[in-house]
Amino acid sequence: MLIYFRALGESFRFAVNALRNNKTRTFLSLMGVTVGIFSIIGVLAAVDSLEKDIKGSLSSLDSNSMIICHISFGPSEVPRWKRERFPLVTYDDYQNLQRNLPGLGAINYSMNVAAQKVSYEGTVIESVRIDNATEGLYDIERLEFEDGRFFNERESVNGAPVAVIGSILRDNLFGVGVNPVGKQVKTLSRKFTIIGVLKKEGINAFGDSKDEKLVVPVNIIRRIYGDNNRSTFPTITIIPEEGGDPDELYALTEQKMRQGRSIKSGDDSNFFINRLSGFADAIDGIISILTLVGWGIGGFSLLVGGFGIANIMFVSVKERTNLIGIQKALGAKRRFILFQFLFESILLSIFGGLIGLIMVQVVVWLLDVSKIAGDFEFVLSFDNIFLGLFTTFVIGIIAGIVPAIGASKLDPVEAIRTGM
Known about the structure:
Organism: Dokdonia donghaensis DSW-1
GO molecular function: transmembrane transporter activity
Largest sheet: 7 strands, mixed
Domain ABC3 transporter permease C-terminal: 297-412
Main location: membrane
Number of domains: 2
Subcellular location: Cell membrane
C-alpha cells in the first residue's frame, strides 16, 4: 500500500514541476477553465441570490394566499376580449366573502393609486407610494412595528384619517429615530394622524419596499377615486385559517363569489382567483431556466477550456517522450506514467477553477461594498464553491485521460529513439 502512495506522490511532484517549468503555457491553458467556472458559478450565485431574495420577499405572505381580481396572473383559457369586460372586484365582494366564507383566516381589500406628495411642517416628500388596505392586511402580511399599531376594524370601516408610515419615510419627514405617533401629515388633500411605524425591511426582489410608503384605510381611497375606476386595480387577498384546507377555501371562495354576483350555473366566472403557491411554482420554473442558461453559457467556455488542456497535454507528452522512455526503461510502471500526466491535467483544471471562484468572490465583494445593486445581497454559497471545484476536477480527468493513457502505453525503446 505504501508503494502506491509513494508512486502517487512522485507522480504529483512530476506534475507540479512540469507546470512550474512551463508557466506561460500553464497560464494560457487554465484561462479557458477559469472563464468557464467564472461564468457558471457567477450565474449560479446570481440565480441563488435572486431566488433567496424573492422567496424572502414572499415569506411575509402565507404561501396559501389567494388574490381575487379581474385579471389572471398566469395563462388563461378565457379569451382576451372577454377578460377585458370582467368587472372590477368591489368592496361589496369583499364584504360578502368576509361575512359568508367559512375557513377564512384573514381577508384584505386594497386599491392601487398613483404616488402622492406627503408633507409635514414644511418638509415635503414627492412621489410617495400610498398603500391602502383593510384591517386584515396586518395578519396577511404579518406586519411588524417599531412604534404604534395598525388601524383596527372600526377605523378601517369608517375610513378614519389615520396612517401607518414606513421607517425611511418617517426619517425623511420627521428626522431619524423620531417617534411620529400622534403627529399629522398631509396627503391626498387631507390630514392623517400617524398611529404606527413599520419595521425596516429593505427593498425586496420586486423592487418594492414598505419603508418609503404610507398605508391608509382603503375606504378613504374609495371616497376619492370611486368604486369603478379601473386604474385603481382593486384586489381581494385571502388566506385560510390555520390548519385549514387551501383547496377547499379556493372552491368555497369561487362559490361565494359566483353567488354574490348572481352568476348562473354553466356560465363562466367573471373574476380570477390567483394562488400565490402557483406564483411560487412559476418562479421556481424561471429559476430552473436561468440555472440551465448559466450552465449553457459556462459550458461552452468549459468545453473550450477542456480542449485547451487536452491539447496541451498531448504537446506535453510529445515533448517528454524521451523522458517517458527513460522512466519506463528504469522500471517505472504504466500507472506511474498515467498518474503523472493525469495529475498534471487535473491540477491545471483545478487551478483554473480556483481562479474563477476567486474572481466570482471579488465581484460579489465589490457589488456588496459599492451598493450598486442596492439592498440586493449576492451570496456565493458553499454548495456553489464545491460544485465549481468538482466540475473542474471532472474536466481535468476528461481532458487528461486520453493523453495520459497514450503516454503510459509508449514502448520505452521507441520512446527513447523518438525523443532522440
